[in-house]
Structure formats: structure tokens, C-alpha cells
Amino acid sequence: MKISVIYDSKSGNTKQAAEWIIEGMSSVQDVDARAFSIKDADEAFVNESKGIVIGSPSYCTQMTPDMHAWLLASAAHLELAGKLGGAFATAQYTHGGGELVIQSILINELDYGMLCYSGGSGCGEPYIHMGPVGVNSNVEAHNSLEYYKDYFVIYGRRFAEKAVEIFD
Ligand SMILES: Cc1cc2nc3c(=O)[nH]c(=O)nc-3n(C[C@H](O)[C@H](O)[C@H](O)COP(=O)(O)O)c2cc1C
């Protein structure tokens, strides 16, 4: 089963988070998971995917303008309806809007008719709620994107397990 992770990333943090999600997805049997930047998403692979996870940095507590433009224009031509959808974010402040970014991405996915899944607290610890957020060490000395690696990997595994359960 194919699953796509699509992200926007200027300085590499969200790309790194996407790769950690792929690591978790790839631990699930028969899953072929690939990550794409919005600049070079493989349309055929995305259309064949049963699950699509979308991620963005927080820019003024919103998804990036490029991600918003991609969701409005390019994503409208993809086959998204009826597929499992998820979202993730990175930020440089603990309270920098990561979950707001996730919320807006999920709303766009719902608009396209996707079935949104986060794992949520129903999956037990670690509680990931709406989707994983990674906070880097640009500003907060006590933070590091690496601290959030397990959340992204575990989220990826849970998402892929749910996609297999629903669509296989
Ligand atoms: C224009 C701009 C606005 C930003 N606004 C926020 C913000 O509101 N909250 C926050 O926590 N981080 C903010 N950041 C920091 C980024 O979200 C953070 O560094 C992110 O991990 C960058 O992802 P990337 O490396 O994938 O590009 C902003 C960065 C830029 C360039």
C-alpha cells in the first residue's frame, strides 16, 4: 500500500519530520511510504496512495503561504476524496501555533473529502492529539527537533497501521 507525506520546508526541519514519519510508516508490513516536497510531489504516486499526510512550518501561527497556495491549487487536481488524511507541523516556539497549523491543514483535507486520522489519545501514550508538532532549537535553548523524533515515528506507524486496517 502506498502512502504519501507531502511537506513545505525552507530550512529543513519539516522535511526532517516528514522523513521520521516515513520511518514509522515503513515499519508497517507492505507499506511503501514516500515523502515529497510540494515542489516535486509525484502526482501518480500520490493518486495511488491510500493515505496522505501533509506538513508545514508555522509562519505567524499559520501554514506557510506556499503550502496554502499548494492546497488551494495543486491539491485540487489530486485524487484525495475518501483517503486517510493526517497533518503535522514544526515551529520554533512551544506556543508558536503548531497545532493551529495542523488544524487548518486537517480542515482543508476534510474539505477535499478525506477521512482525517491523528491516532489521538485513543492510541495511548505518547498522546499525540491532533498530530505531531516538533519545536526546534532556533530560539528556545531547552528545545530541539530531535526531542520530538519519537512522536513523528510513532505517528507514522499508527497512521500506516490504520490505513492498512481500512483499505487492505
Ligand atoms: C516568516 C516566518 C514566520 C515564522 N513564524 C513562526 C511562528 O509564528 N511560530 C513559530 O513557532 N515559529 C515560526 N517560525 C519558525 C518556523 O516555523 C520554524 O523554524 C520551522 O521549523 C521551519 O521549518 P523548515 O525548516 O521546514 O522551513 C517562522 C519562520 C519564518 C521564516
Topology:
Blueprint: E1 2-7, H1 13-26, E2 32-37, H2 43-48, E3 51-57, H3 65-72, E4 84-91, H4 98-111, E5 115-116, E6 133-135, H5 149-167
Parallel strand pairs: 1-2, 1-3, 3-4, 4-5, 4-6
Helix pairs in contact: 1-5
Bound molecules: flavin mononucleotide (FMN).
Flavin mononucleotide binds at residues 9-15, 57-61, 90-93, 96-97, 136, 138.
Offer a concise description of the structure.
By secondary structure, the protein is of the alpha/beta class. The protein is built from 5 helices and 6 strands, in the order βαβαβαβαββα.
Q: Descriptors for this entry?
A:
globular; 168 residues; binds flavin mononucleotide; Rossmann fold; 36% helix; 6-stranded parallel β-sheet; 5 helices; alpha/beta
How many H/I helices?
A: 5
In total, the number of strands is 6
Structural class of the secondary structure composition?
alpha/beta
Instruction: Please state the overall shape, judged from the principal axes of the Cα atoms.
Output: globular
CATH architecture: 3-Layer(aba) Sandwich
Q: Helicity range of the residues?
A: 25-40%
Order of helices and strands: EHEHEHEHEEH
